Amino acid sequence: MRKLSLLVMILLMVGAGAAVAQDEPITIDLWHIQSTGDGPQLIQQAADRYMADNPHVTVEVVPMQNDPYKTRILTAMGAGDPPCIFISWGGGPLYEYVQANQVVDLTDYMTADNYTEHFLPASLSNATFDGRIYGVPVENTAIAVLFYNKAIFEEYGLEPPETWDELLTIVDTLVENGIAPFSLANRTKWPSSMYYMYLVDRIAGPEVFASAANRTGETFTHPAFVQAGEMIQDLVNRGGFIEGFNGLDYDTGQSRMPIYANQAAMTLMGSWELGNFLSENPDFYENDLGFFPFPAVEGGEGNPTNVVGTVGDNYYHISTACEHPDEAFELIQYLIDDESVALRIESGRIPPVAGVAELLEDPIQQEIMRMVEAAESVQLWYDQYLPPELGEVHKDLMQALFAGEITPEEQAEQMEAAVAEYFGA
Amino acid sequence: MDTTTAAAERGITRATRRKLPGWNEYTPTIILFLLPTLVFMVLFVVWPIINSFELSLYQWNGISPTRDYIGLNNWTRLISDRVFWKAFGNNLIVVVLSIAVQMPLALLLAIMLERTTNLVVARFLKTVYFFPMLMSSVAIGILFKYIYDPSFGPLSQALKALGLASLNRQWLGDPGIVLYSIIAVICWQYIPFYMILFLAALTGIPEDLRDAARIDGANEGQYYRYIAVPIISGTLRTAVVLSLIGSLKYFDLIWVMSEGGPNNASELMATYMYKKAFPSFEMGYGSTVASALFLIVMGVGLITMKLTRRFETKV
User: Are residues A252 and A265 in the same domain?
Assistant: First the structure.
């Protein structure tokens, strides 16, 4: 009996000691890039709720702009002073962080209490390497779709196409009437990559790219990559794209202006573009904006329900330099708990959680979500999937391909050479 | 008391003699005043330069705790890097055009302003001409991105209105034109700076010289040709050297307006350095480009200073 009470006393003391230790004030810093619209508030409200529940923790939230962030996080990691929680887009750049031992392996946290089931299965794959999970998908679901100006389509009696040939007929009709079929602002290069990714996927399915990128058999000289390049140059030569597209800047709206002005009919862009349409030109959004999935390619092996995009958008990670990973993970869970999910949907996003389809009310969002759920595969953007160095090579080659400065064969060969060198070294 | 003072004085004289030439009683104070600047210079300029040279010997992605020593591999890669030499060539174009366009126009504007006798007009024009200099490069870049828009831009609209639609180009989309489109903006931005520099030098010339020249029968053209411009040749030299070095390490407007594209058509050494060091995660190779840029700017700068030494004046 005395022994037992002694044990109880010791346990109590240990417990009390732990409680005291827990109450010691700690600070967790979090860098994110939700800097536009109500983005900062979405993160801050979660941090505030977490701090209210855990008074000993101070959360320092630092919102940053997209492009400066990319440089700052690299510099901070190189200097050995990264924030506790930071974001990435998953894929190749995240893998660099993982290999550099900068990211905490979250597998044990994620599998505890089956937490992974909280998410859409497709959302975890871009942050999983060799079966280990390194990030929590939080922000959004975004897939590339073809937006079009309904007024122009009505004027010339056009219908959304289901095949590439139908699309080419539409292109020819529009060119004859002096309207640019596609608006494209390709100064930053990634917008043109979307056409290429979809064509490769439609021609040969997603496996060819995955196999070529992971060096598991295929190469970037596979006929699908060449054929996609040929189809793009054919489209360019038909006058498919707006004049001067390689010099136009997406970030300052130069791809949307021609659509508002009825000078261009379509554009292939991530579904985040809906937010831009809505805030820049509500009238157009209400009356004239439509979208359709990328058409099928005749004889192609890829399933036409496949989409290119990202389920998750931003992933939240814990750096190995973080002294309080347990608290940090708890904080991340607040970012994507039911309350945060509801707020994200309210601000026009589709958070990557299971059952999100039932929570959506906006018909356009529902339609996007239907496409994601029906998709056999979701191809992550090549430039995010590939290691950063190769992502840059791919984007440079896309700009040159669209400009007609290299042939489709040269594009394929140069990409293959860069990939082979990267993995050979 | 007397003897000790004398001994102390002698001690000081002896100590002074042993010290470096030019060392006197003010020297410690001078060093003390310069110290803050020197510390910052070493910390933020000298040390990073040395550090870049060191990093150029490694293969490093910028975040990994380890980096691989690869000797001069980055440097051999640089020497056979087509894009780097393309960028170097573009830098030379920027140098030549900047000097050839900015210097004469700035001088012309300065002379015009100096000759404007109506003070209100002169002040008004000075302010207007100086305006581009007051805007941030990023704002100018975004502004001209819109101006150059081939369908909506004021430039193409103006050409259409004048019936010159055939002259319209894809100003920032055509690899053959993009560099020149941006250089035009660079000139627009920097001419005011040199104009003010020249204007200050011109107004610094004593009025007697002009009067003397007039009495000797020189007209205004001759005054500027034979008297004013030779007198301010020191300022002209400073302006040329500034423009030269500025053009070699130029970055801002190119980055904002074209990111060096399309297809490296407007790539400069500095934009290439940034692309390699950050978006491509190649900090080692990026540092090599940075070091090469440093050597080139340093070398060209020193040579120019030496070649133009004879123009050195106190102005």
Answer: yes
Q: Would residue A288 count as lying in a domain?
A: yes
Q: Determine contact: A410 vs chain B, CB below 8 A.
A: no
**Best interface-test mutation with A: which of B54, B61, B142, B166 has the largest number of A CBs within 10 A?**
B61
- Mean pLDDT, chain B, integer: 88
* Residues A388, A178: Cα–Cα separation, whole Å: 39
**How, if at all, do strands A136-137 and A307-312 pair?**
unpaired
Domain of residue A40: give its range: 25-139+313-354
Helix, strand, coil percentages (3-state) for chain B, rounded to 5, are 75, 0, 25
Identity of the residue in A74, A102, A187 whose CB atom sits nearest the CB atom of B261: A187
Please report the number of interchain residue pairs, chain A to chain B, with beta-carbon separation below 8 angstroms: 104
Give the helix/strand (H/E) hosting A136: strand A136-137
pLDDT at A17: 47
CA of A262, closest CA in chain B: separation in Å? 12
Give the domain ranges of chain B: 2-55, 77-311
Q: What is the reported pLDDT for B190?
A: 94
Residue of chain B minimizing CA distance to A100? B64
CB-CB neighbors (< 8 A) of B63 in chain A: 74, 77-78, 96-97, 100, 102
CA distance B201 to chain A (A): 41
- How far is residue A334 from each of residues A47, A50, A106, A330, measured CA to CA in Å? 7, 7, 16, 7
A68 contact residues in B (CB cutoff 8 A): none
Cα(A17)–Cα(A308) distance, integer angstroms: 52
- pLDDT (mean) for B205-230: 89
Of B172, B175, B275, the CB nearest to A392: B275
Q: Quick one: pLDDT band at residue B169, thresholds 50, 70, 90?
A: confident
* Number of domains observed in the structure of chain A: 2
Of A209-218, A398-407, B227-236, B303-312, minimum mean pLDDT range: B303-312
- Least confident interval from A287-296, B84-93, B303-312: B303-312
User: Is A247 part of the contact surface with chain B (CB cutoff 8 Å)?
Assistant: yes
A59 with A110, same domain: the answer is yes
* Pair (A88, A237) in one structural domain: no
pLDDT of residue A2: 55
Q: Cβ contacts (< 8 Å) between A245 and chain B: which residues?
A: 173
Q: Are B262 and A403 in contact (CB < 8 Å)?
A: yes
Inside any domain, residue A385? yes
Residue to mutate among B59, B63, B251, with most A CBs inside 10 A, is B63
How many H helices and E strands in chain A?
21, 13
SS3 string of A143-188?
A: EEEEEEEHHHHHHCCCCCCCEHHHHHHHHHHHHHCCCEEECCCCCC
Is the same domain home to A284 and A160?
A: yes
Alpha helices in A261-324 (DSSP H): 273-280, 282-287
Same-domain status, A47 and A97:
yes
Q: Are residues A101 and B258, on separate chains, in Cβ contact within 8 Å?
A: no
Same domain, A193 and A105: no
Chain B contact for A249 (CB, 8 A cutoff) = yes
Domain CATH code at residue A226:
3.40.190.10
Can you list the residues of chain A whose pLDDT is less than 70? 1-23, 425
> A131 and A149 in one domain?
no
Does A252 lie in the same domain as A166?
yes
CA-closest candidate to residue B300, choices B74, B80, B92? B92
Q: What is the CATH number of domain B77-311?
A: 1.10.3720.10
The mean pLDDT value for B150-174 works out to 88
Q: How confident is the model at residue B1 (pLDDT cuts 50, 70, 90)?
A: very low
Higher pLDDT, B305 or B91: B91
